[in-house]
Design brief:
Layout lengths: L17 H25 L17 H9 L8 H24 L17 H4 L3
Helix pairs in contact: 2-3
Length: 124
């Protein structure tokens, strides 16, 4: 008996064949696909509409600014600031315009109907 064990056919490495290299390529391609899928799972999601309902206010200027908010739905987060600032500016301008509109004129004071002060009528 010898101390060495002869190699069996199952233990011997197989010589490279066309079929073996094709299998390795498929395994490598499958591994690359799995890696891409894992990267996509952890990638940040793209912009998605919030679908926040906007009710009409009855003021065309204000409604136009509120509709402008929908532009942020299609932008990345860093683009929201520009839209929000633009809408804020538009709403502020609309409110300022409401304050600046002339209302009905205030009644003019009438000086021809002066009533004497109660203290003047009781002089002694």
């Amino acid at each position: 008996m010898s101390d060495t064990v002869p190699e069996t056919a199952a233990e011997a490495p197989e010589p490279p064949t066309a079929a073996g290299s094709g299998e390795r390529e498929r395994e490598q391609t499958h591994g690359e696909e799995c890696e891409r899928e894992r990267e996509q799972e952890h990638a940040p999601a793209g912009p998605a509409p919030l679908a926040v309902p906007r009710a009409s206010t009855g003021h065309a200027e204000v409604d136009a600014q509120l509709e402008r908010l929908a532009d942020a739905d299609h932008l990345a987060t860093d683009g929201h600031v520009e839209v929000y600032e633009d809408v804020h500016r538009g709403l502020r301008d609309a409110l300022t315009a409401l304050d600046a509109r002339p209302g009905p004129p205030a009644p003019a004071p009438s000086y021809d109907r002066r009533t004497p002060s109660p203290s003047y009528g009781s002089r002694s």
